[in-house]
From TrEMBL:
Name under which the protein is recorded: Dissimilatory sulfite reductase (Desulfoviridin), alpha and beta subunits
PROSITE patterns in UniProt: 4FE4S_FER_2, NIR_SIR
Boundaries of every 4Fe-4S ferredoxin-type domain copy: 176-204, 205-234
PANTHER family xref list: ANAEROBIC SULFITE REDUCTASE SUBUNIT C, SULFITE REDUCTASE [NADPH] SUBUNIT BETA-RELATED
Family from the record: Belongs to the nitrite and sulfite reductase 4Fe-4S domain family.
Keyword 4Fe-4S: yes
InterPro entries in alphabetical order: 4Fe4S_Fe-S-bd, NiRdtase/SiRdtase_haem-b_fer, Nit/Sulf_reduc_fer-like_dom_sf, NO2/SO3_Rdtase_4Fe4S_dom, NO2/SO3_Rdtase_4Fe4S_prot, NO2/SO3_Rdtase_4Fe4S_sf, NO2/SO3_Rdtase_FeS/sirohaem_BS
Length: 301
């Protein structure tokens, strides 16, 4: 005959232990530790914005990987840094070591994730905006802020879109729109050669600029030596609602603006709209599809 009281006690202890383990994992996740498939091992996610880290940052991470991991780091698809194989017993010490080096935890779960960005006009010859400056400001304002599910932001310097802004909840792309000054043109065809989307054609001694094809990359402006292609507008194109995953969605182009302050105003209103309207498990693109792009645009513009 079994001892029912003993079985009940053992079951309660097991449930309590499991609940504590889940709670511990939740707390560790808040500190940037993501569970691995190996028991009691975690990947320590570290905060990095825009893919720019100092040499001191790299030395501190390398030392931590040697001491607490297996001597290597993983660079994530979002320009982040993770140290895999940190044992549960070492998580507190590893976290304190990173904090002492000025490196905080990365974000996961229902938060605004680290901003990704290209080098922009600081380095890239095609860059039209200072992506790193914008990234730094966004990161300072919004990194790890709570949201209904997750929210990803990307900044790219030109329509080449190396940072795939159309695949993020909020994407910012540099643009430079040309205007043709006919009296300055000598029909040298340099602008035509520079255009990678066939928006410029020279036929029968006339130049045709098709703004329906033009992606506002500004290459024709840079190629022209006679001031026949000038800058009409230069600034930021905003995309919203993009995501990848099992149900990918390309972001909608919301607007173009020459005012960086307007970019931040729209970002703030977009995040507020998402917080106020999202259902459980919805990304921004899901909310836009359910509520309508026009309704969204009227609210945030």
């Amino acid at each position: 005959m079994c001892n029912f009281s003993k079985i009940t006690t053992n079951w309660k202890q097991k449930v309590t232990k499991m609940a504590k383990k889940d709670t511990d994992k939740d707390l560790l996740k808040e500190k940037g530790f993501l569970s691995q498939r190996q028991d009691d091992h975690f990947a320590m996610r570290l905060h990095a914005a825009g893919g720019n880290v100092t040499s001191d940052y790299l030395r501190a991470v390398a030392d931590a990987a040697d001491k607490y991991g297996k001597g290597y780091v993983h660079i994530t698809s979002r320009q982040g840094v993770e140290i895999p194989f940190v044992h549960l017993d070492d998580t507190e010490a590893a976290s304190e070591t990173m904090l002492s080096a000025g490196i905080g935890p990365g974000a996961s779960g229902k938060k605004i994730r680290a901003v990704v960005a290209c080098q922009g006009d600081r380095v890239c010859k095609r860059g039209l905006i200072d992506c790193q400056e914008m990234c730094e400001k966004i990161d300072e304002l919004y990194f790890a802020a709570p949201v209904p599910y997750k929210f990803k932001i990307a900044v790219t310097g030109c329509p080449a879109s190396c940072l795939k802004v159309q695949e993020n909840d909020f994407g910012i792309m540099g643009f430079e729109e040309p205007v043709f000054v006919e009296e300055n043109c000598v029909m040298c065809r340099q602008c035509e050669k520079a255009c990678e989307v066939s928006a410029i054609k020279i036929e029968d001694g006339s130049l045709y600029l098709d703004m329906h094809k033009c992606v506002a990359c500004g290459r024709c402006i840079g190629a022209c030596k006679k001031d026949a292609m000038r800058t009409k507008d230069k600034g930021f194109t905003i995309f919203v609602g993009g995501k990848v995953g099992k149900r990918p969605r390309m972001g909608n182009m919301l607007l173009r603006t020459c005012d960086s302050d307007e970019v931040f105003d729209i970002l703030e209103r977009t995040i507020n709209y998402y917080r106020e309207n999202a259902l459980e498990g919805e990304r921004l693109g899901d909310v836009i599809d359910r509520c309508g792009l026009d309704s969204f645009g009227e609210t945030v513009k």
